[in-house]
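Hello Y.,

Per our agreement to keep a running log of every chain we model this quarter, I'm adding this entry. I've kept the format consistent with earlier entries: sequence first, then predicted structure.
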Amino acid sequence: MRKRQIILDCDPGLDDAVAILIAVAASDRLELIGITTVAGNVPAKLTLRNARIIRELAGVGRELPICGGASIPILRDPVTAEDFHGSTGLGNIDFPKPKLRASRQHAVNFLVKTLRATKGFPATLVVTGPMTNVALAYLMAPDLVDGLKEIVIMGGADTEGGNITPHAEFNVFADPHAAAVVFGMDVPIRVLNLDVTHQIRASDDDVERVRALGSKEAMAAADLLAASNRLEENEKGRKAPLHDPSTILAILRPDLFEGRQARVSVVTEPGERFGKTVPEYREDGNVLWYDKADAEAVFSEMLGQLGRYPL
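Predicted structure for the entry above:
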C-alpha cells in the first residue's frame, strides 16, 4: 500500500517540534514530502531555524525540503507566543545549530507547485500554526485543492474557550482572516481544536516514559514535552496539552478521536470575540470538529511511534 503523503505547515514551537519527530518516525506509513514554516509561536526567522534543527535531529537530510513562509499575518498586527515556547521557540533547550540550509523556495510557492503535482495521488496538508501560508497559496492557485486529500488543522476552540483570549485559540487569533479563507475551502478538513487537545496531557511520568525509550530523538522529544509542561505550569498551573502532535496521531489513528461534522466560520470583526471559531454542526459540513479523544491510547500511539527511532 502506498504511503500517505503529507506536508507539514508549522511554526515550531515546542509541540510542533514533537509533531515533526512523530511524522518522521512514522515513515512506514507517512511520507513527509515537505515542511513549510510561518511566523506564529515565534517570528518567522526562528520558526524556519527551528524546523531545520528538528529535521537534523530526526536524522533527515536535504531530501526533506524546508521552506520559509509568511512573516506577518494577512491583515492584523503580528502576535507571538514566547511566553509558552521560550524566546527561541524551543523552550531555550540547547540544541546544536543546524548545518543544512533551508530551501530558497518560498513556502507559498512550494505549496502551490507541490499540490498541483499531487493531483493524481492527493496529499494531506497538516497545519499546526497560523494559516497564512495556506490561505495565500489557495488565493494564488485555487486549483491546488485538486491535489489535497484533506487538511488536518490544529486550531480553534468552541466549548473550551480560548487560550490566548477568553474566546480565541492562538493559531486562529494570530491570523483569523487566513483561517476564514482556509475553513471556506472546498476540501475535507479535520480540526484538532482545544475542545479535544485539552483532554490530552502528558504527566511527568509520561514524559519519563518517552525519555526511557533511549534514542536521541525520543530524549529530545521528552525535553520538549518537559519544557512545555514547565511553561504551561508557570502560566496556567497545569500540564501542557499535546496540541500539535495530535494532528499526526489523528492521521495515524483516527479511531482514537470522535467529532461532529460542521461548517466553521471565524470572527474577523474587531472586538472581544476577534479570532473566535464558530462551528455550525450540520451533516453536510466539510469540517470534522473533534471533541473527544481516548487520551491514554493517543499517548500510547505517540510512545509507539517515537519508539521506532533506533538506539
